[in-house]
Structures are given as C-alpha cells and as structure tokens.
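REQUEST
  id: r-88c1
  op: predict_structure
  target: ATP synthase 24 kDa subunit, mitochondrial
  payload:
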Amino acid sequence: MIMAFSSRLLSKSKQFCGSQITLQQTHAIPVRFFAKQADPPALKGDNMLKGIFFEVKNKFETALGVLRKEKITIDPEDPAAVAQYAKVMKTIREKADLFSESQRIQYTIQTRTQDIPDARTYLLTLKEIRIKRGLTDELGAEAMMFDALEKVEKELKKPLMRNDKKGMALLMAEFDKINKKLGIRREDLPKYEEQLELKISKAQLEELKKDALEAMETQKKREEFKDEKMVDVKSLDIRNFI
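RESPONSE
  id: r-88c1
  status: 200
  body:
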C-alpha cells in the first residue's frame, strides 16, 4: 500500500519541478537522444530541448535528494506538520532554484497583464488568476477594489486606462484607503507571503492525504491485501520508499 502511495508522491515531486519551466516543450524531445547509435549533428532547437530536459531532470533529482533527508508528516490538521512541509518545500525551491508560489503568482500576473490597456480588465484578470489558483478573498478586498474603480471611473466619466497617470493615481489613492481599512501594510508583505505559503502547504498536504488513502484503498481490494489493516497516514515515512 505504501509503495503505491510513494509512487504518487514521486510523481507529484516531478510535477512540482517541471511546472517551473516550459515542460510542454520537453515532450517534443526526439527519441534519438536516448539511442546508443551515433546521431547526426544536433540542431540549435535540439540543443535547447535537450537543455530543458536535463534542467528538469536535475531539478527533480535535487527535490528527491531533499525528500530523502527531510521527514514529512501527512497531517494537514497539525500546524507543526504543515510548517515542516512548508520548510521542506522551501528547501527544495532554494536548492533547485525554483519559484515560490507567491513568486509564481507574481510572474503569472506580470505576464498575463502586461498588455492589458484598461484597469477593469486588469482587475478581472487578477480575479481569474486568484480563482484558478484556488485562493480565497477572505477580507473581501476584491469587491472593494472594483467599487473603488467604479468610483474613479464615475469621477472621470470614462473607462480608466492604465496609461492615464492622473486616473491611476486616483485609483491607487483609493486602494491605499482600502489597505488602511483592512490593516494591510506594505512592510508586512513578507508575513503575508509566509501565510500564503502555509495555506498552500496545508492544501497540498490535504491532497497528499487524499492520494494516500485512495492508493491504500485501491491496493486493499487486491486479494493478497484484503486482510491487511490500513496504516495511519500520519505514520508513513516516505523517506523509506524513495
């Protein structure tokens, strides 16, 4: 049962590393890279794809090296277990030179919004990114931001464009009021980032727990395991199976 789950954890580790780079390009790596016979001179594109493949491979092996040393307790309801998991993921990111989830979100926002001309589409895109990332707006800040935009556009009597310096200054002033009302300070951003990482770590542990239970349930249906008692997920030590 544990072996079935550990294979899923390894699969997730590979996804964790691969999602940081343009993994979709690695699917196009020619089979000849793995053949023993002599190959024709590689093209520049081949070299690029080969480089991407080895980069993903190295990052994955780095992640495995950390996972073999650090203990992960699959208990999303235990704050200490969540904090330890977050610490392990941070170590993997630092050693493998990967983005944190906050950095990935920032990068996504930057790339998705750089060509958006108006403020409303910008905010709608931020909302879309938030939903796709599974993030909740517990403070209701998003609705306040749209209300602020409505107020500014009503004052301007036209849609607010992002290159409108005067209009954007008005909007930023309204956002500052919202931040003050919600008690959000720029100097506290590192704390908010840490809270986000812990929230994401808890969600990932919940997913790992679900996968572990599913793997054990599936294996228990096999004849040779039908009388075997399921172990407590919290007792699993994945280091023994990597």
